[in-house]
Recover the amino acids of this structure.
């Protein structure tokens, strides 16, 4: 939902946009990563997904900027 607003705005302004997501549910196994009674920040799989997202975005920005 948030990404659609970003993509729509970027399209209307003629600029590029991107989005990245971390999943909290594995649809193949129906495993819910925060369904163990702990708060989200204590769940290591979710925390790792957030950290991975940050690294991926930083690397993507670096590579994109160095293409110019």
């Amino acid at each position: 939902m948030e990404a659609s607003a970003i993509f729509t705005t970027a399209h209307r302004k003629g600029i590029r946009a991107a989005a990245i997501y971390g999943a909290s549910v594995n649809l193949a196994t129906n495993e819910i990563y925060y369904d163990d009674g702990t708060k989200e920040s204590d769940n290591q799989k979710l925390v790792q997904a957030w950290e991975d997202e940050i690294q991926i975005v930083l690397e993507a920005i670096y590579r994109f900027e160095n293409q110019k």
User: Anything to note?
Assistant: The mean pLDDT is 84.
